[in-house]
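Teaching assistant here, posting this on the class forum so everyone can see the example we discussed in section. The complex has two components, and the goal was to see what a joint structure prediction looks like when all of them are supplied at once.
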Amino acid sequence: AQSVTQLGSHVSVSEGALVLLRCNYSSSVPPYLFWYVQYPNQGLQLLLKYTSAATLVKGINGFEAEFKKSETSFHLTKPSAHMSDAAEYFCAVSDQGSGYALNFGKGTSLLVTP
Amino acid sequence: EAGVTQFPSHSVIEKGQTVTLRCDPISGHDNLYWYRRVMGKEIKFLLHFVKESKQDESGMPNNRFLAERTGGTYSTLKVQPAELEDSGVYFCASSRLAGGVTGELFFGEGSRLTVL
């Protein structure tokens, strides 16, 4: 089964600094990869997805992620953090062996400090 | 357009009691999913409905969990009898197409279950 590992359960950055949230995947077939975000008291919202088209994927709110097969990574980045980016971020992979159910990582809480 | 709604938002019950969680998907979404997040762990897939049929229930923990989707509209997830390890946040999601392919799952805010 495909799986993802998120490195770092908590990440803290200063406002205006680069945001880098790490995700590595394990898959024996070309994966479909996703980043979701959960703001406080809200449901999960799709940020961006990779489905074997362009390796650099742009999402909402200025986020982007790059699929690197050689590193089995799909890290999420944003050049300049805003206070409103504080949330929990989840990397997920689509499990083609299980009806395409999403397998999520443990999540990374992003704290943005003034 | 209304999003995915879940009820209750928070439920506190004692071990051995029964709880029923409800999910109303976005209108017109044939695919409905249940996920669960136990504190500190990953969000885990429970099951997938296509209309009223269970497409995949491989993630259901045991037979204390029963999910239904009457008429292919709203869905319920019943836990009977509840155990301490059932505590967590139960998420419902819906999609028009098979969400795992497109990633376009629309999630509700979750139902937080606390079993004492």
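For the discussion questions: The radius of gyration of chain A is 13 Å. Chain A has no helices and eleven strands. Think about how each of these relates to the inputs above.
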